[in-house]
Write a structure and sequence with these properties.
By secondary structure, the chain is α+β, with helices and mostly antiparallel strands. The chain folds into 2 domains: 129 residues, Alpha-Beta Barrel (N-terminal domain of MutM-like DNA repair proteins), CATH 3.20.190.10; 44 residues, Helicase, Ruva Protein, domain 3, CATH 1.10.8.50. It is 20% helix and 29% strand. The protein has an 8-stranded antiparallel sheet with strand order 5-7-6-1-2-3-4-8. A hairpin with a 5-residue loop joins strand 6 and strand 7. The relative contact order is 0.19.
Amino acid sequence: MPEGPELHLASLYVNKVCDGVVFTGQIRKSEVSKCPDVPFTCKAYRITATSRGKEVKLTLTPIKSDDPKKTVNTGQADQPMEIFFRFGMSGYFSFTNEDEIPKHAHLRFYTTEKPCRVLSFVDTRRFGSWHPNGTWQPERGPCVMFEYKSFRENVVSHLSDRVFDRPICEVLLNQKYFNGIGNYLRAEILYR
């Protein structure tokens, strides 16, 4: 299962491949996915990514026209949308040509380029999910990597809680206190 560092690398990957790339049209979902449709259609938008623990947020930002006479067409997005991804056991992002889309690409964003390229959320085992207009999961604590001060305060202020009476190998998997830590990071931490 991807953990905090892998999701951070996924967000860096998305930011790298999408830098300067313009996306267009409707976001397409695979027929087999049980996740919600993404109600976002726009002639031109950009994609950026941010990670926090075991989640990645994609922000879709419409590109505004410099021409004040042009107005947004009906049915076209004029405000940014955030989509929150949880990768499950095998989720990842892929950026390919349209004719090379991976078999298990469950959510696809198309570029304006010719030939068209596609940013896909790929999930072979279908344990991953996405939530349009969602939020970071409230039951998860601060990110261990990027919110260290808040993370430390959260742990120190709860040391008297019963959860910290359990073995450390169990406590490290509690996402309320150690957001982004999973089995392999727990093993590395305990080894060191």
